[in-house]
User: Fold Spermidine/putrescine import ATP-binding protein PotA from Mycobacterium aquaticum.
Amino acid sequence: MTEATIAEAPARTQKSGVAIQLLNITKQFGASTAVGGVDLDIRAGEFLSLLGPSGCGKTTLLRMIAGFEEPDAGDILLDGSSIVGLPPNKRPVNTVFQSYALFPHMTVAENVAYGLRQKRTPKAEIGRRVGDALRLARMESFADRSPKNLSGGQQQRVALARALVNRPKVLLLDEPMSALDRKLREEMQVELKLIQLQLGITFVFVTHDQEEALSMSDRVVVMRDGAIQQLGTPAEIYKSPANSFVAGFIGKQNFLNCMVSGPDTLTGPEYTIRPDRSAMEGHGTGQPVVAVVRAESISVGSVIGETPINAVDGTLANISFLGETVQYVVTTNSGVELLSRMPAAAAQQLDLHSAVRCSWDGNSVHVFPADPSTVAAEK
Assistant:
């Protein structure tokens, strides 16, 4: 879509610094609500990730921005003008999919040039822009190769160049790295973020991988059942989860069922927890709650003396060496499994099946209402 085409759409009041506005977006498939009343401002030039488990609505939301699906209700504004009803090829966005969909009968350069040729762009400009896009994606030396002779990572770079050559205002990415191995995926995360920073255009990235979202994003949208659970920076999402679903979906967590027994005290079947006072706000005495403690916040050591506050004793059920960290699984006397991840340099030499103590700092505890439906089933 050209800027002139956008201007022809009925204009709304554009928010300063906002590229895309989603206004009460709803999408249903039969009786199932894929997206339910979502409001979201996507800032110009930011890297925003839509994160959540399968079926949470993140891909449907992306497809509605791209124009492959239309909302049943609500509006989508780009630069203050509605793009609802416009076909995908009339929107100033491009999409990189899970399957790169490269044309096997074309060379790398021909694949990248395809969209420009469809728009009847002058030949000299096509050559210049294709060269720029291939250099940006570090694929200029592969211009004459066939896609079938490329690795998965190289094919992804070609798909990225093909999208960027059109100079979109917004680039949409639908889990484009899901087929890559871990090492290559981590390398591509760095490259993708560097490209986004260099170009300064808006990236909207869909993923179920929390590490991808946290490592690349300026902000993260955590979704569940078609609704936004939390929007914030990676640090905000990680350190201050809005509810137990977000806490459980981001990182490795331990959920401890408790009762509020005082203004700053939680009591469980075999432990007493004293969180930071701020974590206790809104939770009254006698209320059942769940205390959430991250695996990296729990230290595992030998049992010495009586069990103190913010600790619980158990049996060491499993030890896994993960390189820089050691992972422990501890089974408490009541059968609760706790997960701990400690720096290898700080880990004690402990024997499997020995009695151990799990302890944590009260400041690391998050407290949420004891509603099982809000605890993430997928971690």
